């Protein structure tokens, strides 16, 4: 199968970025486009019980930080010769990853696991598990090596 659109989910962490070299290898082998995705929760919902200006300020800070981060990652990939673009979305993370994969007709989703287990996994859920379980395209999960 030829991969032409590779969706890479990032959250701003080094753990998530561990998926990038694998996406680059796939893209090199297939001359594919790498589409970076950052999904953030909606802080307005988190602060709806409080002062709305707190949420507004937080949203603005997050948008600036997210845009800068995504431009930086895209720039590094472009400098290395990859066709790259990025999307920034808000919403439920796993569901948004799946929705974007469908919207852009991704051929594969590449993402890191965060290695949660036990109670943390039960409480927080596993985004990777939900994506793998519900994806209609192949998913490459990368388990980062922890230093």
Summarize this entry quickly.
The chain has 147 residues and is α/β, with parallel strands linked by helices.
SSE topology:
Blueprint: E1 5-10, H1 14-17, H2 20-30, E2 33-40, H3 43-46, H4 52-79, E3 83-90, H5 93-103, E4 108-112, H6 118-124, H7 127-134, E5 139-142
Parallel strand pairs: 1-2, 1-4, 2-3, 4-5
List keywords for this structure.
about 150 residues, 5-stranded parallel β-sheet, Rossmann fold, alpha/beta, 5 strands, 7 helices
Overview of the molecule:
This protein has a single domain, classed as Rossmann fold (3-Layer(aba) Sandwich), CATH 3.40.50.620. 50% of the residues lie in helices and 21% in strands. The chain is built from 7 helices and 5 strands. The chain has a 5-stranded parallel β-sheet, sandwiched between helices. About 3% of the residues have low confidence.
Classify the secondary structure makeup into a structural class: alpha/beta
Q: What top-tier CATH class fits best?
A: Alpha Beta
Terminal Cα separation, in Å? 34 Å
Q: Sheet with the most strands? A: 5 strands, parallel
């Amino acid at each position: 199968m030829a991969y032409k659109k590779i969706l890479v989910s990032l959250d701003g962490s080094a753990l998530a970025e561990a998926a990038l070299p694998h996406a680059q290898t796939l893209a090199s082998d297939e001359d594919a486009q790498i589409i970076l995705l950052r999904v953030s929760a909606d802080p307005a919902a988190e602060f709806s019980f409080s002062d709305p200006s707190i949420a507004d300020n937080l949203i603005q800070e997050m948008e600036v930080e997210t845009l800068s981060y995504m431009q930086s990652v895209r720039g590094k990939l472009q400098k290395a010769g990859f066709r790259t673009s990025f999307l920034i979305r808000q919403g439920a993370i796993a569901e948004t990853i799946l929705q974007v994969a469908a919207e852009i007709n991704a051929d594969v989703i590449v993402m890191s696991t965060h290695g949660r287990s036990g109670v943390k996994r039960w409480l927080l859920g596993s985004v990777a598990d939900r994506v793998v379980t519900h994806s209609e395209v192949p998913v490459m999960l990368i388990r980062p090596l922890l230093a």
